[in-house]
Amino acid sequence: MTTTPSPTECQDRRRRSLAELTGRKLDALLVFHLPNVRYLTGFTGSNAVLLLHPDRAILFTDPRYRLQATQESDCALRVAKGPLLVAAVKASRRSKIRRLGFESARVDWQAIENVKEHLSLGASLEPVCGLVEDLRRVKSPAEIALIRHSVLTTSEAFRRAIRHARPGIPERDLAAELEYQMRLLGADRPAFETLVTSGPRTALPHARSSSCPLSANRLLLVDMGASQNGYASDMTRMAFFGRPGPRVKRLHRAVLEAQLAALAAVRPGVSAAAVDRRARRVLRDHGLDRAFHHSTGHGLGLEIHEAPRLGKGEKTRLAAGMVCTVEPGAYLEGLGGVRIEDTVLVTQTGCEVLTPTPKELLLL
Ligand code: ZN
Ligand code: ZN
After folding, report:
1. Of the residues 53, 99, 269, 336, which has the maximum number of CB atoms within 10 A of its CB?
2. Sheet with 342-346, side-by-side order of all strands
């Protein structure tokens, strides 16, 4: 499996971005959101700006990355010592660019103020929102292969690490073991801070793994994902130490039913909001709609949270090649919370659940 995008794949991405740009009557685009730079150039460094112009694409970085940039990217390279945005705007002046787009949702306001004086007379900076992000929603076969790999790492790390779970050890020790196993399996890093919560703390959907001990006869929630070769995966599974009572079993069954219903709704052409509604309807039938207070899922790829969001009011239509999570949950104060999350590929006819880990309540 190739782990870096081929030059032709990056060229094709730039070509499609430029077509979008021309449609918006812009001459060029300043790209500085690093995942977008990586998507369009292959460059993985931490300081970069891309000036995307129909005649050429120029990648700006600093001297630390000179060699790496030539190895990773086929773009023309400019190494600058000062602020890269200023260098890129100065270069735009030489190319007689009039309407220069910039990623307005990603901006450091002061940085944009600082470059205005370097524009040529009559040239303007035009806000552009989500242009590259929209292209990134549909993954190429090579990207899907990388996400599959990342998903398998997450699931295998869970299988290996969960053996170490026992009542009394701190939540964060299990989180560390999960992250260690992901690293051993080739992950660059966790795609986000690994979440392990136990007992009533599972009702806090976005708590942090703490020094609280895992408790006997209580729920255990693990939300984890690898970032491998740049691509994220995301999974949540529930376990229980001992024999769960009827309330816990009912809660888990209801969330699983909601998750399966939402998965059954995922197919090309369906709106992201419709998938969210499916999960919500099942939870409402169980009297749990008010216990579900986040969206049903999110896209993922080079970033852990990408478009499309599977939530209320989201009009995006799903398309084959999109990859998203499906993760309804229900959180009851005192008892605890249950969330079940898979990473899912939208196919021509429906969806493929990439996550192989069983979803039943795992009894430890
Ligand atoms: Zn997650
Ligand atoms: Zn997620």
Report:
1. 336
2. 306-310, 297-299, 323-326, 342-346, 351-353
Alpha carbons within 13 A on the beta-carbon side of 111: 17
Please indicate, yes or no, whether residues 125 and 192 belong to a single structural domain of this protein.
Answer: no
d(CA 282, CA 293): 14
Burial label, 308 (beta-carbon count in 10 A; 0-12, 13-18, 19+): buried
How far apart, in Å, are the Cα atoms of 61 and each of 18, 47, 67, 68?
21, 6, 11, 10
Asked if residue 153 belongs to a domain, the reply is: yes
Phi, psi of 232 (to 5 degrees): -90, 160
What are the DSSP E strand ranges found in 95-194? 99-103, 124-128, 189-190
Distance separating alpha carbons of residues 148 and 5, to the nearest angstrom: 16
Strand partners, 219: 240
What's the predicted TM-score (pTM) here?
0.95
What is the residue range of 66's domain? 7-136
Is the same domain home to 125 and 149? no
Q: What confidence tens digit (pLDDT) does each residue in 136-167 have?
A: 999 999 999 999 999 999 999 999 999 999 99
Q: How far is the CA of 275 from the centre of ligand 2 (A)?
A: 15
**How far, in Å, are 1, 248, 356 from residue 361 at the CA level?**
34, 10, 15
* Residue range 210-259, pLDDT digits in tens: 999 999 999 999 999 999 999 999 999 999 999 999 999 999 999 999 99
Task: Report the number of distinct structural domains present in the chain.
Answer: 2
Split the chain (364 residues) into runs of 10 and give each run's mean pLDDT: 84 96 94 97 97 94 97 96 93 89 89 87 92 97 97 98 95 98 98 96 91 95 98 98 96 98 98 98 97 97 97 96 98 96 98 98 96
- Residue 51 counted as domain residue: yes
Give distance in angstroms: CA of 268 to centre of ligand 1.
23
Tell me how far the alpha carbon of residue 184 lies from the centroid of ligand 2, in angstroms: 22
Ligand 1 center from residue 142 Cα (angstroms): 23
CATH code of the domain containing 68: 3.40.350.10
Closest ligand, as measured to the CA of 305 = 2
